[in-house]
Amino acid sequence: MKIELSSVKPHECSTPALVIGCCEDARDQLFSLFNEALDGCLERLSATKEFSGKANTTHLIHTLGRLPAERLLLVGLGKQAELNGERLRQAAGNAAQALRARRVASFASALHLSASTDAALEAVCEGTLLGSYSFDQYKTKNKDELFSFEEMTLLLPDADLAAAGARIEATRAVCLGVSLARDLVSHPGNVVTPGYLAAAGRELAERRALKCRVLELEELEKLGMNALVAVGKGSVEPPRLIVLEYKGAGDEPPVALVGKGITFDSGGISIKPGLGMQDMKTDMAGAAAVLGTLEAASALKLPVNLVGIIATAENMPGGKAFKPGDVITSMSGLTIEITNTDAEGRLVLCDALHYALTNFNPVAMVDLATLTGACVVALGHEASGLMGNDAGLNEELKRAGERCGERVWELPLWDAYGESMKSDIADLKNSGSRDGGSICAAWFLKQFVGATHWAHLDIAGTAWNDKSRPCLPKGASGVGVRLLIDYLRGK
Ligand code: BES
Ligand code: MN
Ligand code: ZN
To answer: pTM here?
Structure first.
């Protein structure tokens, strides 16, 4: 979608549709102006309760020549006192989805004028870009009926357009990263394989002048990354470790971002039941978030150093697959008894974390993984699980989550949770008690991070939406990108 800035006043703007915000308990100048131009139509809609300004509602009216704008899209902002960045973002997302449903491809927005902060413009721009996302690359029938947005004009009657333009470009960069992550998660597992992720990493590196190295099977074996190798054994697609470096801060030690990249999780020999198995194409959402974050961070030229590490494999049953009862020596030297081949995420991550630690000496390390069904049980789809060994880092991530709307919720990581992960034959087993499953998984990861400041984000419940949300049309959310960018910006 093209984004234009204009100093035209809303009531003088000629456009197929003009978006304005309305609070449920307050009337601003714009409301009165348009109400008058439309002979009291807005007050009437409110009196009949057809549209009263409640959050997450929209209403479209044709102006029939009474205004230069052909249509007016009213967007509910809820109570005025509760109006914040997230509300505006959601309102903009709702507007985009309402316009898409009515196939209005070009429009102007005055939504940000309802709040008088600088951040309002970014929120509206971000919400629109996020809410207008769709993924229809695999639809071949009636291609000409597929809809895509053309242009949004943001109305800024009293603002410095150049300064606003720079802020819009920055917002666009973040949304580009989110879209990359969403696309990667949306593609099916027969397309996005470990090889595809490696190619995506290389392509990103080329485009953004990042350093990229892909460790192939032979090298993984040589380095002793047997946990990652074991998970990949059942598949004809070999596993890989993708390493990307972005330098925005000279020789400072980097922040390491580590992503789980299981391109399909069948469960392996401990095979999953068939119902819903197709959703396990999304088991590389952590990897997608890492790539999306590097895309956005480099486009924004953030003054930080980053290393992105993606452990990618396909978890399949097969004659060569790893089995329950196998004992594996991880790269760190810790031995692991496999008690469930479906607990594969922690295996690929433990080697990736150890690799990050020993090769880059990061100031902080954040991993993202669709790690446990237990996290979905605990938090549903409203927040990602957060666990870590550093209260300060956890706080920073929580604050970033509140600011950007990608919420995280901390779970405790007490040592007592590790009891069930101890093995009779090896140092650890890869799956213990079902109870507190997300924490047991995080406790397992903790054994591999040494003294490095580390946080783990379990995005099993937030990476994919079965129902549409204001800024997240149904499907892949791209979760993690905005959270990490916000966290990195706050550093
Ligand atoms: N990829 C799954 C976790 C998952 C579940 C992600 C639902 C997204 C939605 C993970 O590899 C897995 O299978 N975890 C097991 C762990 C268990 C065997 C200890 C689980 O959660 O059941
Ligand atoms: Mn699994
Ligand atoms: Zn998995």
So the answer is: 0.98
